[in-house]
Amino acid sequence: MRRRRPLFAANWKMHKSPQEARAYVTAFLPEAESLVASVDIVLLAPFIDLECVCDALSGSTIGFGAQDCFWEREGAFTGEVSASMLKKIGCSHCVVGHSERRRLFGDTDETVGRKVTALLAEDITPIVCVGESLDENRAGRTAERVQEQLRAGLGYLSDAERAVLVIAYEPVWAIGTGLADNPKSANNTIQTIRSAAGGLGEARILYGGSMTAENSAAFCAESDIDGGLVGSASLDPNKFVRLIASATQVFDAR
Ligand code: 13P
Questions:
Q1: Which terminus has fewer CB within 10 Å in the chain: N or C?
Q2: 190-233 tens-digit pLDDT
């Protein structure tokens, strides 16, 4: 089987002005350039930062992208940004279905699916988030819940389309809490995800939820975890570099 290339994505969420974003990239680049020989790195920034990030990253192979998009190309959709606009500014990736958007902004499996279709049409890689709540986890419904999200959101895609997706397994209870999942249990869930929909054997599947420089190697030592979607620990460029560097060593060994 083709070896999946590791990927680390920084989800800055609602942090950083354009000036701060530029300063981040300036500090991050010299350290990160040595890592991109073995892993892909993507910075997922607020919309207003994208132009600055694009400019600051120019000449580098580090990608950048947005944290959400709308599925129509253009029109009377106040406050929205389309996949086609993201393409024009140079985005390579875009997060869809993050649990914060599902919980606070009404995203559903159906709207996630529409966003995925719009992104694929623009040749932007969707990073599709799935994950169970604490109640679902305690009730032993983790596998069922993530399979449900995948079926409803991605069930209509072809195998070839599914193979280019990135899936992020983010247990909702592990996000921003400091309580990361156990790497073995995350790997089990990710294996379930991989086998759930036919074409996910080749897709990269990341773990997200309180990943840090201290635990990234333990997650990435697991057979099916291809990297991380990182919130808090990606906000400081040095911390994010350390997180990636420590995980990078274990990929070769597995
Ligand atoms: P934390 O790394 O802050 O737990 O956030 C994870 C996340 O939601 C990434 O999308």
A1: N
A2: 999 998 766 788 899 999 999 999 999 999 999 999 999 999 99
Which residues are catalytic, by number?
98, 170
Identify which has the larger pLDDT, 91 or 154: 91
Is 45 close to ligand 1, i.e. is its CB under 6 Å away? no
Three-class secondary structure assignment of the chain: CCCCCCEEEEECCCCCCHHHHHHHHHHHHHHHCCCCCCCEEEEECCHHHHHHHHHHCCCCCCEEEECCCECCCCCCCCCCCEHHHHHHCCCCEEEECCHHHHHHCCCCHHHHHHHHHHHHHCCCEEEEEECCCHHHHHCCCHHHHHHHHHHHHHCCCCHHHHHHCEEEECCHHHCCCCCCCCHHHHHHHHHHHHHHCHHHHCCEEEEECCCCCCCHHHHHCCCCCCEEEECHHHCCHHHHHHHHHHHHHHHHHC
pLDDT in tens, 100-154: 999 999 999 999 999 999 999 999 999 999 999 999 999 999 999 999 999 888 8
- pLDDT of the residue at 195: 87
For residue 208, the ligand 1 atom closest to its alpha carbon is 6
For domain 7-253, which architecture applies? Answer: Alpha-Beta Barrel (3.20)
Every domain of the chain and the residues it spans? 7-253
Q: Ligand 1 centroid vs 31 CA: distance in angstroms?
A: 22
